[in-house]
Design brief:
Length: 431
């Protein structure tokens, strides 16, 4: 039975409060205003005082408006009909397609029991050498992409969406500028990836409360497809916007702020989303990549700082490239030992040589004399950045490994690269 109340005690921004009983956290309600019905969700309960956030905002709500509790939480439709569709944070279509109302499932579900998980053991190939060779993405892994405003992180996500070897892509956009949303959508359409994707989007002009629903919508749908046997890659951008939306709601509710104004449960809220990454035994998997922009390029900012404790490494996107030194995939050793026999040796040698290149460039900038070895390192660095690090490079893993061997052969002698003789004899390019 639905409960109906006709007195609202308080309206503060997009949060309303009223006295109600037998109401559950996360339960939905309909607020009937003069402008029409508005959807709201219970976000806090203090005794008999219930706080709800109104998705469309608090404008136009009167204390005499009717509030009708629905008895269930936020839901999203689940079926194959989701493929190729675009929805907002409340699950409403943005692509002029029909509203989906079949097979509704709740989005606020707990993470998968660890007993149902299996150890990650499969690589996700992306065609991006800086990922496939040096920091391999592993199925069911959770990784952030640390970056700053202005970097091409959405373009990187679009590349991954078009090239990743998975069954299904689910994209969650939070606080996107409208131009960024259109560009991302157009890129996926032009690359033929939108038909195999599901897109939940919240733009900067949309109600802030919808931003909080986007990752839950995306991850719930991904999890259900994974249970049915599909390997799903979830791409989220931008988790800092998600955290900022949490902060705005917390301020409206006059909660005591924690570090830099963020709510005290920031870690738990982030972990609740990232821990949805899972590899089901006998079924599919959910892998999560989430962009986290760092204000002022400050990795100690609360959002990247907390994220680093939750995830299994990170990609650093700097100067339009994935930084080989700051980036780390903690699970890569589980899969790259089985890719090609030279994978680990090539990865270690290239990074070691590139680190020496950086030192050489610093020495040159300070006016020190350059040796023949220094000249070789500079040449190596130029080739490595142009042919491997550049994000426009799009080649399979094996071709990337061969290109690494080619770069070494063009810059060094065989005995200068520090790799095993057996591998050099097998993979060193013929003169």
């Amino acid at each position: 039975m639905q409960k109906i109340y006709t007195k609202i005690d308080q309206v503060s921004g997009n949060v309303i409060a009223l006295a109600a009983d037998d109401v559950a956290y996360g339960e939905l309600a309909i607020v009937s205003t003069a402008q029409g019905d508005a959807l709201a969700e219970v976000i806090r309960i203090e005794g008999d005082l219930v706080f709800l956030q109104v998705y469309s905002g608090g404008a136009g709500i009167s204390t005499r408006d009717e509030v009708r509790f629905l008895g269930y939480g936020m839901q999203v439709s689940f079926s194959e009909n989701l493929l190729g569709r675009i929805f907002n944070g409340a699950g409403q279509p943005l692509d002029n397609g029909p509203q989906l109302t079949d097979c509704m499932i709740e989005i606020n579900t707990p993470s998968v029991n660890p007993a149902c998980r299996i150890i990650p053991s499969k690589m996700i190939r992306t065609g991006i050498p800086m990922i496939d060779v040096f920091n391999t993405l592993v199925m069911s892994q959770k990784l952030p992409i640390f970056s700053i405003a202005g970097e091409p992180y959405n373009e990187l996500l679009a590349r991954i969406a078009m090239q990743a070897e998975v069954d299904l892509i689910v994209i969650g956009g939070m606080g996107l500028k409208y131009n960024d949303y259109l560009t991302l959508k157009q890129t996926l359409e032009d690359g033929g990836a939108l038909g195999n994707s599901i897109f939940f989007v919240h733009t900067a002009a949309d109600p802030v409360v919808e931003c909080l629903l986007v990752p839950d919508m995306a991850l719930t749908v991904a999890e259900r497809f994974a249970v049915e046997g599909k390997n799903v890659l979830v791409l989220l951008t931008d988790m800092t916007n998600f955290a900022d939306a949490m902060k705005e709601i917390a301020i409206t509710m006059e909660q005591v702020p924690s570090n830099r104004g963020y709510p005290g449960d920031l870690y738990s809220q982030l972990a609740r989303r990232y821990e949805k990454a899972v590899d089901f035994e006998g079924a599919g998997s959910v892998t999560t990549l989430g962009v986290t922009t760092m204000p002022g390029d400050d990795v100690t900012h609360p959002v990247p700082d907390n994220t680093g404790y939750i995830t299994e490494g990170q990609y650093y996107l700097r100067d339009g490239r994935i930084d080989p030194f700051g980036s780390l995939s903690r699970l890569k050793q589980l899969v790259n030992k089985d890719s090609r026999e030279d994978h680990r040796d090539v990865m270690d040698a290239m990074i070691r040589l590139y680190a020496q290149t950086r030192e050489t460039l610093e020495k040159r900038a300070m006016g020190f004399k350059m040796s023949d070895w220094d000249d070789k390192l500079v040449r190596f660095g130029e080739l490595f950045e142009a042919e491997i690090m550049d994000l426009s490079v799009n080649i399979p893993l094996e071709a990337a490994l061969d290109r690494c061997w080619s770069i070494c052969a063009r810059c060094f002698d065989k005995d200068e690269v520090g790799m095993r003789s057996a591998l050099i004899d097998k993979f060193w390019p013929a003169a």
